[in-house]
Amino acid sequence: MPTKDEVFEKVREALVDALGVDDDEVTPQATMVGDLGAESIDFLDIVFKLEKGFDIQIPRDELFPDDILTNAEFVQDGKVTPDGLVKLKDRMPFADLSKFEQNPLVQDFGNLLTVQDLCNYVSTKVGAA
C-alpha cells in the first residue's frame, strides 16, 4: 500500500509525462486545466498512465461526471442546480467543490479538478495511508 507521498509522486510523473509540464508546475493546488493546460484528450492519456502505474481501473464516470453536467434535471441556465451539486458531491467525494458551489457554472467545471483531487481519488482506489 503506497503512502500519500508516493501517490503524489506517481501522479506527478504521469502528469509531467502526459502534459509535458515541468515537475515544479505539478503542485497539489494546481488545476488540471487552468494551470497545467490539460485538454480532454490528455485526460485519456492521464487515466491510462494512472491505471498502469497503480494497477487500478478508473471508470470514466467516476472522474468526469459528464452525465450530470449534461442532464437538464441537474443543469438550468448553464448552472448546476442544488440537486446536481448533491449528485456531484456523491460522485466525487475526493474533490473539493466548495469554490464551485459559490458559482456553479457548468463551463467552469472543467477547471475545478486539482492535482490534489486526483491524488485523493487514486488514494481511495489503492488504499493509501
Tell me what you see in this structure.
- The mean pLDDT is 93.
- The N and C termini lie close together (7 Å).
- The protein contains seven helices and two strands.
- 51% of the residues lie in helices and 3% in strands.
- The protein is mainly alpha-helical.
- A two-stranded antiparallel ribbon has the order 1-2.
- It has helices at 4-19, 40-54, 60-63, 66-69, 82-91, 98-102, 115-126, and strands spanning 75-76, 79-80.
- The chain has a single domain (4-126), classed as Non-ribosomal Peptide Synthetase Peptidyl Carrier Protein, Chain A (Orthogonal Bundle), CATH 1.10.1200.10.
- A hairpin with a 2-residue loop joins strand 1 and strand 2.
CATH uppermost class: Mainly Alpha
Portion in strands: under 5%
Largest sheet: 2 strands, antiparallel
- State the distance separating the first and last CA atoms: 7 Å
Low-confidence stretches: none
- Quaternary arrangement of the chains shown? single chain
CATH superfamily (homologous) name: ACP-like
The helix content is 40-55%
Report the radius of gyration as a whole number of Å. Answer: 15 Å
Give the overall form: globular
User: What is the second-level CATH architecture?
Assistant: Orthogonal Bundle
Number of domains: 1
What is the number of strand segments?
A: 2
Number of helices, where a helix is a run of at least 4 consecutive DSSP H or I residues: 7
Question: Structural class of the helix and strand makeup?
Answer: mainly alpha
- Please state how the strands of the largest beta sheet are arranged side by side: 1-2
Query: What order do the SSEs take from the amino end to the carboxyl end, as H and E?
Result: HHHHEEHHH
Q: What's the pLDDT, averaged over the residues?
A: 93
